[in-house]
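so my prof wants the structure for this chain in the tokens format not the other one, which i didnt know existed until like an hour ago. anyway here's the sequence
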Amino acid sequence: MAGHIPGARSLATSRLLDGQGRYLPAAELRGLLAGVGADGDEPVAAYCGSGVTAAQLVLAAHEAGVESALYPGSWSHWITDTSRPVATGPA
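here's what i got, hopefully its the right format
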């Protein structure tokens, strides 16, 4: 099923890394996170298709000083309950 959890914002894990596979400096990570609304003022949860790549975002957020939580079931768990809402499109 295509879609995303309502209210979710996308930040590809590839954007967290420099050209050599290392995390960007903390200030740059904070800027990327703030750009998707994760500035530390509100709770942040990370998810992906199965929870694996979202763990990278949680680590990057930690390095940037932004508290976050991993939704380990991620999208594959979310869609197992048909009563949960599913959003499509950029919003």
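also thought this was worth mentioning. The first strand starts at residue 45 and ends at 46.
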